[in-house]
Amino acid sequence: MSVPYSNYIAARHCIIPLQMKPVLRAVGASGFVAVSILLLSWTTYFLQLNSTAYDFTLRLAGSVTPTSPIVIVAIDDESLYRNGAWPWSRVKLARLLDGIEAGGPRVIGMDLLLDEKKTEEEDNALAAAISKVPSIVLATRIISGNGVEHWLQPNAEFVQKQVALGHVHADPDFDGITRRIFSAKLAEGRVVQAFAAVTLRTAGLPGSAWEPRAGRVEVVRPQAFNIRFVGDNGSFKHVPAWKVLDGAVNPDEFTNQVVLIGFTAELSDLDQWFTPFAESGRKMSGVEIHANAIETLYKGRTIAEASDAAVFAGLFLVVMGLWWVDSRFEGRRFYAAAVLAGPAILALSWLLMKYGSMWLPFPPFWAAIVVVVPGLEVAKLVLVNRDLDRKIERLTVAAVYDRRIAGGHRPPLPSEARQKILTHLPAGSERDTWVTALDAYERESKSRDEHRENLFGTQRRNSRWKLDAVDFFSEELVRFLAFNNAILASIKDVIIVSDPAGRVVYQNPAATRLEGYRKGPPFAPDYFASLLDGRSFVTEFAGVMAKMEPVVMEFVPAKNARSFYNVVLSPIPGAGVVFSMHDATAQHELNQAKSDMVSLVSHELRTPLTSIRGYSDLLLKYDMVQEKGKAFLGTIIDESQRLNQLIQSFLDIAYIESGRQKITKSDFEMAPVFRDMLNAIGPVAAEKQIAIEMPAAGEMRVRADRLLLYQALMNLITNAIKYSPAGTTVRMGFSNGNDRVRFQVTDQGFGIPADETSRIFEKFYRRGNKETREQSGFGLGLAFVKEVAMRHGGDVVVESEVGKGSVFTLWIPN
Ligand code: ADP
After folding, report:
1. Is pLDDT at 599 greater than 80 in this prediction?
2. Quick check: helix, strand or coil at residue 105?
3. In this structure, which of 54, 332, 396, 399 has its CB flanked by the most CB atoms within 10 Å?
């Protein structure tokens, strides 16, 4: 009881509704997990993981066909083989420029650092070639020396008016993989934009939003942008440099193209970098990376990264989602959802990368799943464990308490007791059987006691112990149920239990032996009726449920009219009604035999008594005895009259009780009956100076056995006169209503104490007070009244106050 109550208290004193609590707890825990994982994802190890995942997702998004007009003039291994090792003379580079320019490209981007001073002739040749190209971008790069960063610039004669400069600084991540470039770089107080951006702009092609706009002051903030690589090496059109030098290329190939000149020879490992697509361990040339960057800017497809806030929100939602799924679909469905959540997030990440050029790092989400799924399980385990502890604690307290009530340890069977039983059993098989049964019982209870002691005596209450305790309790419960069942089964009385709705929920084995037994009777009161003489039990059933008081009925005949049962309907609070039938046939037969016997004897006594009275009357009438004898005769006549009265009332009651007297009802008017009564008792009342009031004449129709009713009312009115002092009034009342006819006999007599009001209706019961002792009587009058009332389907009750008077009410159905 204490737990629901304390829950109730907790609920009342809490501002937050009870069902909100777990949600708030989950929100808090989800926030905590999201923040922790976010912080964790900033660690180097996690960054590495995220980078790998980034490459993986990018590769999963797949390669795309470049759409920007890019041609790479590649100084490849073949070119080096044919035209000699690097560095080439600037005259050769000048020829290369001329060869490309002949085709009329949009722009030429030279991804070669032209910072060193060579011979005058060489530099002049190249400067001349550069001057012939209207749109050209040259490369510059930052180097640091002595802790100072400065620009590595092309020679001054190359940086002509039409020449633009772009930085070619590679910024690979810590794992050596180039994923992004910087839009601009700052050194020596000078900002230089990225080679790719400058080339695109110089080519006059549309590009990303951060492209500088003419006429405005340009503030360039160096910022990294992630390249959307279109694929692995060789995704762009390559023209080997040697072909251009040998004139083996149609110059038209460069017309209107963005031509990038760069070093691609793999053997020398110069300007070669890993990219997310470098699956096979092949690096990508710097110039191709620039080509990818240009393509990215051209298409406006720089890969944006989901912000930390977005990742946090996502993590929070995923954790909350897992919690919700777990609380709704615990078990297999939850695991399935958790296992599917991983690929789902990967798929989302992939879709965003492929169609939205957006990077949503999935490893933190995977980490969240990996942490949260077992975490939820552990949390649940902890909760269940705590609850189990509490439950076992309660059961333990109950068990120990129960034990204490029962007097602690079961004492061993005292040897005297054992001896006593043994001496009453002669040696033989019966005795042996008993001894074996006793020993087995003692052994069993001892071992159970020991088990209990061991279990509750131990201090180390681990999970094993808890399971043992649960086993122990369920075993005890089963034993207890079996014990109760055995008791019910061994009872000879019929026990039938009905729920409050009248459905039979239990019948003991004795019930199955009854004639009319049914397995699943539809309505209990009807079933009871069918087991007995067919009388209705509906009113009794409802009455028991309503008043919560048992109803007892004696000697109810069974269906076969041979057996008789004492029937009790008792309420089980909140659970229904127990209907029990005790076989009282033997007792009924005995009672029957007794009253038969008494009637017989009474009858037999009457004949000699009539003779005694008759002869005494004769003796007196004809003056046949002397004066003295006359007095004796008077006594003999009086006493025989008394004896006759006794026999008469005895026979009356015995007769009506036996059930052999059929009541014969008729419709009649009460007024003449009252008149007869007044005539009969008037003289007695007058003698005692008691006034009698009868109902005023009028319509007073009654349906009853006229004779029996007359006798019963006479008994009541005679009593009223007998037990009232002189000078009082006795009133007979009559009323008719509510389907009942009521007769009320009111006196102003001695009254009856409350504890005796029900006893006075018993046979032979007389009160022991002085006023009663002074009156003659046998204690049978009221018993007769009761019997008459019951036989008519009515009853008689009394209300009384000692010293003030009594009211006897006899009612019968109308
Ligand atoms: P009897 O009158 O023969 O003794 P009854 O069965 O008629 O037997 O009554 C039983 C007892 O109830 C009486 O002995 C008497 O004590 C008491 N009693 C009955 N009627 C009254 C009454 N009207 N006032 C007081 N006591 C009464």
Report:
1. no
2. coil
3. 54
**Which residue lies with its CA nearest to atom 13 of ligand 1?**
766
Q: Write out pLDDT tens, residues 435-469.
A: 888 888 888 888 888 888 788 777 777 888 888 88
Distances from the Cα of 47 to the Cαs of 38, 54, 341, 360, 814, in angstroms?
Answer: 11, 10, 22, 13, 100
Query: What's the CA gap between 797 and 799, in Å, rounded?
Result: 7
Cα 337 to chain centroid distance, Å, stands at 23
- What confidence tier does 431 reach under pLDDT thresholds 50, 70, 90? confident
Strand partners of residue 140: 167
pLDDT, tens digit, 9 for 90 and up, residues 54-78 = 999 999 999 899 999 999 999 999 9
Percent with pLDDT over 90 in the chain: 46
Per the structure block, which two tokens stand in for 96?
A: 């290369």
Residue labelled with tokens 């009924």: 588
Which has the closest alpha carbon to 178: 90, 259, 290? 290
Distance 654 CA to ligand 1 centre (A): 19
Closest CA to 412 of 376, 384, 450: 450
Q: Is 518 helix (H, G, I), strand (E, B) or coil?
A: coil
Q: Peptide bond preceding 87: is omega within 30 degrees of 0, i.e. cis?
A: yes
Pocket of ligand 1 (CB under 6 A): 719-720, 723, 747, 749-752, 760, 765-767, 772, 777-783, 806
Residue nearest atom 3 in ligand 1 by C-alpha distance: 777
The rounded Å distance from CA 766 to ligand 1 centre is 6
Higher model confidence: residue 465 or residue 136?
Answer: 136
Q: Which atom of ligand 1 is nearest to the CA of 751?
A: 25
Q: Which of 6-15, 366-375, 409-418 has the lowest mean pLDDT?
A: 6-15
Ligand 1 centroid to Cα of residue 718, in Å, is 9
Residue nearest to atom 23 of ligand 1 (CA): 720
Contact 763, 779 (CB under 8 A): yes
